[in-house]
Amino acid sequence: MTPMAAQASKVATAFETAAAANRAALIGYLPAGFPSVDGAIDAAVAMVRNGADIVEIGLPYTDPLMDGPVIQEAVHHALLGGVHVGDVLRTVEAVAGSGAAVLVMTYWNPVDHYGVEAFARDLASAGGSGLITPDLPPEEAGSWLDVAREHRLDPVFLVAPSSPDERIALISSVCRGFVYAASVMGVTGARTSVGAAASGLVARVRQHTTLPVAVGLGVSTGSQASEVASFADGVIVGSAFVKRLLGADDPASGAESVGRLAAELAAGVRR
User: Fold this and answer.
1) Would you say 21 and 29 are in contact if contact means Cβ atoms under 8 Å apart?
2) 56 catalytic, yes or no?
3) Which of 53, 56, 227, 233 is catalytic?
4) CA 194, CA 260: separation in Å to the nearest integer?
5) Are 79 and 62 in contact (CB under 8 A)?
6) What are 155's strand-pairing partners?
7) Which domains does the chain have, with CATH numbers?
8) Disulfide engineering: 229 pairs with which of 9, 24, 141, 199, CB 3.0-4.6 Å?
9) Contact predicate 100/52, CB 8 Å
10) 39: closest CA among 8, 99, 83?
11) Which CA distances in Å does 169 have to 145, 198, 199?
């Protein structure tokens, strides 16, 4: 292994830095292109400036089966605005320039259509750290895993409370950076409480990997972030951030609201 290949990814470094501070990492999600390409960049940068360690940039897609109504609405507006993969990569580059590790969250079809090798090359060139692929089974991920390794990108896959142990072992074995643990079954969206199965799922994942385990789907407040941070290595927040942009009067106030929420959540993971 060459020295460059042996270097820790920005995602791994973010988790290591958080662990050294005896806290969980804060991971925020926003879709590219909403309320505009520049508006999404401003909001994501505000997220980083207020304590987010890692940012997920969503690639808008016409058939977002796993996304709840909040994210679906934002993605719909982004697609109506003509957002494309080039805009996603520009967003990644701008947000990575703010110092955070940046991953793209996407369904597999747009990557396959773009070209797996070309997408990996262009994502790495933009400063991206990896890809989260909620609908790509590990058994069908061989081409992606090969080019991800070549371009030093972290492939991140999801486990769920319904995942049997053998499935968790398989998924964890192909992940790099972290394992994404969905705290509840169903589509994304902020909830009044985090799924009760979340802590048990994290414990099950840790039986099969030494990678950090981050919990997503449902976190929306500082107190919930604190709860999840007590048993997980990372706290993922998406719909709550998107909701701030949807409810804003203009892009500037939306970015400011996203920053305020990031600060609340960052305080939560530090409790």
Assistant:
1) no
2) yes
3) 56
4) 21
5) yes
6) 131
7) 3-269 (3.20.20.70)
8) 24
9) yes
10) 83
11) 17, 17, 17
CA distance 236 to 27: 5
Q: Which two tokens stand for residue 56?
A: 């997920």
CB 235 within 8 A of CB 262: no
E strand or H helix at 114:
helix 108-114
The strand ranges marked E within 32-151 are 54-58, 101-105, 130-132
Structure tokens at 207: 């039986």
Catalytic residue among 16, 42, 63, 67: 67
**pLDDT tens-digit profile, the chain (271 residues):** 333 344 679 999 999 999 999 999 999 999 999 999 999 999 999 999 999 999 999 999 988 777 888 999 999 999 999 999 999 999 999 999 999 999 999 999 999 999 999 999 999 999 999 999 999 999 999 999 999 999 999 999 999 999 999 999 999 999 999 999 997 533 344 444 555 679 999 999 999 999 999 998 788 999 999 999 999 999 999 999 999 999 999 999 999 999 999 999 999 999 8
Query: 67 an active-site residue?
Result: yes
- How many residues can be counted in the chain? 271
* pTM score, whole prediction: 0.92
Cβ proximity of 74 and 245 under 8 Å: yes
Beta strands in 75-189 (DSSP E): 101-105, 130-132, 154-156, 158-159, 179-182
Q: Which helix (H) or strand (E) holds 25?
A: strand 25-31
Q: How far apart are CA 116 and CA 137, in angstroms?
A: 15
Residue 160: partners with Cβ closer than 8 Å, 6 or more residues away: 181, 182, 185, 201
Amino acid at 214: A
Structure tokens, 268: 């939560």
